[in-house]
Here is the input.
Amino acid sequence: MLREYDTKEKPDGSPVVFSLKFVKKNGELVFMPRAVACGLSQNMKKNRLRGFLPVDKNNHKIGHHTPVNINAITEWNGKKLNL
Here is the structure.
C-alpha cells in the first residue's frame, strides 16, 4: 500500500487515483472512493501520516487535504489490510 501511495503519477503524467477506508480517532469509519496522494506540513515519517485529497471522476479536488495515520487505514483499493 505504501509503495502504491509513493507513486504519484502514471507514465502519461496523470495522477494515480485510489480508494481507501480509514478509522478516525473518534471511531468514525471514513470511505474515500477516489483520492490522490498529497503532501502534508507535518513530518510524515515520524508521525506515520500520509495525506489524501478526495477527487471527482475528472480528478478535480472535491474536499480538503486529510492527514491519515497509516495504522488507521483498513481498506486500500477494495482490499482489506491487516496491519
Q: What stands out?
A: The chain is about 10% helix and 40% strand. The helical segments are 2-6, 44-47. The radius of gyration is 12 Å.
